[in-house]
Amino acid sequence: MKRQIPLAFCFLFGIAMIFTQFSPHSYSQAVYKEVINWGLIISPFAMVLAVVTLIQTHVTRINLRTEHWQYSLIVFVGMIVMVLIGVPFGPQNSIVEWLYNNVQVPMDATMFSLLAFFIASAAFRAFRARSFEAFLLLATAMIVMIGNVPVGDLVWNKVMSWMPWTDGASWLRQWILDVLNNAARRGIILGVSLGVISQSIRIILGIERSYLGGGD
Amino acid sequence: MLEKIMNMDRRVIFILVALVVIFPTLVPVRMPITVSEPTRNLYDFIETLPSGSTIMIAFDYGPSSLAEPEPMAKAVMQHCFSKGIKIIGMTLLPNTPTLAHKLMRKIAAENNAVYGEDYVFLGYRPGTLQVILGMGTDISSVFETDYENKTVDEIPMMENITNYDQIDLLLDLASGSTTEAWIIYANTRYGVKIAAGVTAVIIAQMYPYLQTGQLIGLMPGYLGAAEYEKLLNAPGDGTIGLNTATYAHLLIIGLVILGNIAFFIQRRREG
Predict the structure, then answer these.
(1) B positions 155-184 inside 8 Å of A (CB)
(2) What is the mean pLDDT of chain A?
(3) This prediction's pTM
(4) What is the pLDDT of residues A74-131, one digit of tens each?
(5) CA dist A71 to A49, A58, B222, Å?
(6) A108-113: long-range contacts (C-beta < 8 A, 24 or more apart)?
(7) How far is B119 from B98, CA to CA, in rounded Å?
(8) Is 90 exceeded by the pLDDT of residue A159?
(9) Which pLDDT belongs to residue B257?
(10) Tens digits of per-residue pLDDT, A164-194?
(11) CB contact, 8 Å: B69 with chain A?
(12) pLDDT at A215 > cutoff 60
């Protein structure tokens, strides 16, 4: 029963939601709207689950004294402070806003900014034309990068002024994105979409049951 | 010498990156910008909207990536307010409401726009797909109140807005995969017109949707923001950011070329 009931619900709602996509009848649309409302109610529980998982993970780290376990304490301090102020006074409270603008925003931005340093270092060390394929990748990346900034067209218009085309760097970048990139992306999108459709059918029909847990 | 170049201390590269970011920020050098077609399409679409139209802006970026989408948001909001186009702001990300609300307030104040009449910020609700689909039938069923806790049905500019049918354009400013969710669930299911402003790393993902017309326009990273500012004739953060990005791009290209020259010379010597 523990398995049959969820499978029956999954089948029922899956078929019903597919049906609502093709039927404009008012009853069908009422069902669609109702199910969406249920979804809106259920969604916040995913956040509760996320918080519980976060707490469990960091409590385990502190208990086991794993490497850098002290940072888990900082997670709890941050979370408790924001909850104590944010929940009773709301997100527009001046202290919550101050903490957000002066702690979270700069820290998040700093973490992301560090990527620029690592990308530059990694590009220098790893981006080598070791084979013909690697050379093609390298050349394409260089063209897209140079076409992505105004200096590309500036140099093109000065150095290649004898050519009939102006703004060649941005044109080349655009051509790579419009033609080569589109062909590859479209293939990926079609492949993923077919995979999603087949997986959805398997779930609705109860063939794929791994989402129920238990390694089935 | 060759060995030295090949084994360059990465701290030297870090210092070079820091210099190419700091220098152009302090001493801006204006470079000519060529406006790409996807950015122009978005500008032209908004330009042709009559006064009183409504666009919805989804601020789907977090503090970590705000450097690129924020200048786009500023430019588009400035354009909309100058034309009397109303803006509904919202976000699908939990850590963005404070950021987006502050930005909307700032740009609105600069353009004398009034909250509740010219713009409104709905805030955040959990559940990406449910929020997108739910707003297709009734916005107030998803957002009963706005970010300032006012009942949505009582906000003057929301009086005649029920769902996407009254929204002329949805602009997703994103640093992740939300644009694809908007396209799949809002454009395909409800037919709402969608445009996007995305960070440079995900531009390539967006091009198939531009070609099919599912995206009516696209602002690609700093370049898109700078292009939009050029069309508005109001250089701002996007243009400054593009300057910095230009030098950073040149440095990386230079390092890659240098690394490859050293690599080929060494390979020839060894081989």
Answers:
(1) none
(2) 90
(3) 0.90
(4) 999 999 999 999 889 888 889 999 999 999 999 999 998 898 899 899 988 888 898 9
(5) 21, 9, 34
(6) A108/B62, A108/B63, A108/B64, A108/B95, A109/B63, A109/B64, A109/B66, A109/B67, A111/B64, A112/B64, A112/B65
(7) 16
(8) no
(9) 92
(10) 888 889 899 999 999 999 999 999 999 999 9
(11) no
(12) no
CA B71/CA B173 separation, integer angstroms = 10
* Cα end-to-end span (Å), chain A: 15
d(CA A168, CA A147): 8
Residue B116: alpha-carbon gap to chain centroid: 24
The DSSP bridge partners found for residue B54 are: B86
Mutate to test the interface with B, among A22, A32, A33, A36 (most CBs of B within 10 A): A36
* Interval B111-121: pLDDT, tens: 999 999 999 99
Overall average pLDDT of the B203-215 stretch: 93
Nearest CA in chain B to A48: B126
* Alpha carbon B60 to its chain's center: 9
**In chain B, where the domains are located:** 1-30+240-271, 33-234
User: Three-class SS of residue B113?
Assistant: coil
Q: What is the pLDDT of residues B73-128, one digit of tens each?
A: 999 999 999 999 999 999 999 989 999 999 999 999 999 999 999 999 999 999 89
Query: Are the beta carbons of B127 and A150 separated by less than 8 Å?
Result: no
The Cα–Cα gap between B71 and B69 comes to 6
Selecting from 3.40.50.300, 3.40.50.720, 3.30.200.20, 3.50.50.60, what CATH number does the domain B33-234 have?
A: 3.40.50.720
Alpha carbon of residue B184 to chain centroid: 19
Does the beta-carbon distance from B32 to A186 stay under 8 Å?
Answer: no
Whole-angstrom distance, CA of residue B16 vs CA of residue B20: 6
**Per-residue pLDDT, B225:** 96
